[in-house]
Give the backbone structure.
Amino acid sequence: MTTGSRRAQVKHKFVVVGAGAAGLAAAAGLIRRGVRDLLIVDPAEQHYYQPLWTLVGGGEAARAASVKPLRELIPPQAEWLQAAVTGFDPAQSSVFTSDGKQIGYDFLIVAPGLQINWDKIDGLPAALGTDGVCSNYSFDTVESTWRAIQAFKGGDAVFTFPTPPIKCAGAPQKIMYLAEDYFRRKGVREQTRVHYYCATPTIFSSPHYARALETQVVGPRQIQTHFRHELIAVRSGSREAVFRDYANVREIIQPYQLLHVAPPMSAPDFLRQSPLANEAGYCDVNKETLQHVRYPNVFSLGDASSLPTSKTAAAIRGQLPVLLDNVLAARLGLPPGARYDGDASCPLVTGYGQLILAEFGYDLEPLETFPFD
């Protein structure tokens, strides 16, 4: 890390790292509550509304509807530094950035989201967007999914789920259900085998919704599930996907005509390698208060936090009021009083015009807010 003496040093009362759903929500919420002198740090030009990509990949929305210039979304009372964070020194309440700045803070909100690690799967980067290989997990690749679904004539349609963490754990199966529905409408379902290769032991973390998915969707539609299998390589020339079978400690080869990949993900490198991280690389916060367990002027929400709940915008909705209350209490020298119960939501799209709305907390039991089954 470059020493502070070689950097331009500035200071702000509040610094928010990340301008995704979590960072923008935190910044806007603090400003609404009267905070001034707030800096947002994010290198992006564009902001992507990622929840829409399931519908883009399923042919139900335009990719252009998921993107806006980030400048249009920065709260006007906030300052924006368009630079990447390269490190943290929480003992000195400092953030280091790629443009040579050392930024001091009174309070830090860490919300940089997850990092996509395409290169962790051998052969995947070169294969993406070609010969039936697709993914909804980036703006650049999402349109390839709809093209692949439309071009599919039958055979093996394979959908993958990596070892968590993952943005929206329901998304890999949402696109599978949409594709399977489309195959039926197109008349190719009878000559199609739909496979779901999942690195976890079950189709969904909450047993209540896992049972519903198994009995109401997966079973009746004859979707073949393969649990504790993780994609490790794509052989695009021969249209083969290589999986590690954790249960039997072996590798298996699955032919495909369509392969939708949910890639491996992690906290960003600059966070994983910092004093703020826990052993898994995430910002190490109390799961109820969202306050850092070692640095009381640091808070975190969203995908890069260590909160043991779904990494979704719906979870951020539940985290946000707790974070705002507790940050402002800390500013007054008071202990955190608000508590987050893990409340998260996942609208599991099961076909065109159909879904199962999963709402649950830390205990994975239902926390349903809509009065219907």
Notes: Residues 1-5 have pLDDT under 50 and may be disordered. The chain is about 20% helix and 30% strand. The domain at 7-114+267-331 is CATH 3.50.50.60 (FAD/NAD(P)-binding domain).
